[in-house]
Design brief:
With 257 residues, the chain is of the alpha/beta class. The protein contains 8 helices and 7 strands; from the N terminus they run βαβαβαβαβαβαααβ. It has a 7-stranded parallel beta sheet with strand order 3-2-1-4-5-6-7, with helices on both faces.
Length: 257
């Protein structure tokens, strides 16, 4: 058989996922393990890792829970270094951590503004920097950032979140261009509303849920975490070897109209 068919498995790779404890981070961690990767779990509270760690171990993959509060640069650098030390390499970084305090633009508080930028942008950049230094030495690596459809369309009450997610899409291009010479690919995914613990309360409102489904113009359904995890696995895989600097919208057609 020819050996140049697209390959989607991640056997032998080592991945680090930030905010891995629930929602998208949990689904992405499980999907990467299912595809054959060993997974380091970046967690705001490392003591919450037991169930997820057991699930990954049951798949036959190694797992490393790590204390990784994305507002603490020392924890970021230590988690990245510990991943490379324990596993001997770092092939995949998924910058999943993010938050979105909602408020009308005229009422945004400085502390919410600063925290959103600190986690969504500063955390993403400095985690990428720490991982990038390792990947540069390896001459190989893949970084996948978490943007959002909110980086492409305006969402009322989420001006700061939208701003950071648009910035992540552009940061993705910048890092892809700068690090491509080291065989490091940098991409992003941009999901629509996904059914996670973070969106549960909003989607419980029938009027809000109906509006979201209507705006997801093509498929008319709420996304599931594995819808995003599948795209992450693809972008991390050898099948995506010529894709870099791209933000993949996972929005069910919201931005197509």
């Amino acid at each position: 058989m020819p050996n140049d068919f697209p390959r989607f498995d991640l056997t032998g790779d080592v991945a680090l996922v930030t905010a891995a404890g629930r929602g998208l981070g949990r689904a992405i961690s499980l999907a990467l393990a299912y595809a054959g990767a060993d997974v380091a779990l970046g967690l705001r509270d490392v003591n919450t890792a037991s169930d997820l760690a057991r699930e990954i171990t049951a798949m036959g993959q190694r797992v490393l829970p790590l204390q990784m509060d994305m507002t603490q640069l020392d924890q970021i650098s230590r988690a990245v270094d510990d991943t490379a030390t324990q596993f001997g390499r770092l092939d995949i970084l998924v910058n999943n951590a993010g938050l979105s305090p909602e408020n009308l633009a005229e009422n945004v508080r400085e502390e919410d503004f600063d925290l959103t930028l600190r986690v969504n942008l500063k955390g993403t950049f400095f985690t990428s920097q720490a991982a990038g230094r390792i990947m540069i030495r390896q001459k190989r690596g893949c970084i996948i950032n978490m943007s959002s459809q909110a980086g492409f369309v305006a969402l009322p009450t989420e001006s700061i979140y939208c701003m950071t997610k648009a910035a992540i899409a552009h940061l993705t291009k910048c890092l892809a261009v700068e690090w491509g010479k080291y065989n490091i690919r940098v991409n992003a995914v941009a999901p629509t509303f996904i059914r996670t613990p973070g969106t549960e309360s909003a989607l419980a409102d029938p009027a809000f849920r109906s509006n979201v489904i209507e705006r997801i113009a093509a498929l008319h359904r709420i996304g599931e975490p594995m819808d995003v995890a599948g795209a992450v696995v693809f972008l991390a895989s050898p099948a995506a070897s010529l894709i870099t600097g791209h933000t993949l919208l996972i929005d069910g057609g919201w931005t197509a109209t």
